[in-house]
């Protein structure tokens, strides 16, 4: 933009004082200030309107994309439902034997998943039984550090008491 320093503004003021005159200069300065303010407001309104239009256009594009995606999803669902209905009706009439759906997992995979699920559920929902702990040497109770030291400290050779 225009680079106006203090010296340039002073030069413009002196020229305006000479050309316009000292009695009309305040009125002209006020009018120039109001025109400048109006121009700034007008430019701000135009900028905000342009930005609103851009946002509105982006929203329209987004709406179109969402509608296209929804329409394609709807068509896929209708297609799969109509094919399923056709298969069920043909199987009901006995025209064509209905082919069982291809198994996605074998029986051993299903058994393994069920066993893993039961094992995880047992770990989450119940504690380990006491008989299992005693058979496998799992500690049944938590022992503090001081109690563990007292239990496993070698026996003292003298029977002195400290009290």
From TrEMBL:
This is Sec-independent protein translocase protein TatB. The keyword Transport applies. Residues 52-79 form a coiled coil. Belongs to the TatB family. Part of the twin-arginine translocation (Tat) system that transports large folded proteins containing a characteristic twin-arginine motif in their signal peptide across membranes. Together with TatC, TatB is part of a receptor directly interacting with Tat signal peptides. TatB may form an oligomeric binding site that transiently accommodates folded Tat precursor proteins before their translocation. Keywords: Cell inner membrane, Cell membrane, Coiled coil, Membrane, Protein transport, Translocation, Transmembrane, Transmembrane helix, Transport. It comes from the Bacteria. The gene is tatB. The Tat system comprises two distinct complexes: a TatABC complex, containing multiple copies of TatA, TatB and TatC subunits, and a separate TatA complex, containing only TatA subunits. Substrates initially bind to the TatABC complex, which probably triggers association of the separate TatA complex to form the active translocon. The keyword Mitochondrion does not apply. It is a single-pass membrane protein. It comes from Massilia agilis. InterPro entries: TatA/B/E, TatB. Its main location: membrane. It is found in: Cell membrane; Membrane. It holds the Pfam family TatA_B_E.
């Amino acid at each position: 933009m225009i680079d106006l320093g203090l010296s340039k503004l002073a030069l413009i003021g002196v020229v305006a004082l000479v050309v316009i005159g000292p009695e009309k200069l305040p009125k002209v300065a006020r009018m120039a200030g109001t025109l400048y303010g109006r121009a700034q407001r007008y430019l701000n309104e135009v900028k905000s309107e342009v930005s609103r239009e851009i946002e509105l256009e982006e929203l329209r594009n987004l709406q179109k994309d969402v509608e296209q995606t929804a329409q394609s999803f709807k068509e896929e669902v209708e297609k799969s439902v109509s094919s399923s209905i056709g298969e069920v009706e043909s199987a009901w009439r006995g025209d064509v034997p209905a082919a069982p759906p291809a198994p996605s997992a074998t029986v051993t995979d299903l058994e393994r998943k069920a066993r893993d699920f039961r094992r995880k559920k047992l770990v989450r929902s119940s504690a380990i039984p006491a008989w299992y702990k005693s058979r496998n040497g799992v500690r049944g109770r938590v022992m503090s550090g001081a109690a563990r030291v007292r239990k496993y400290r070698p026996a003292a050779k003298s029977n002195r008491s400290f009290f």
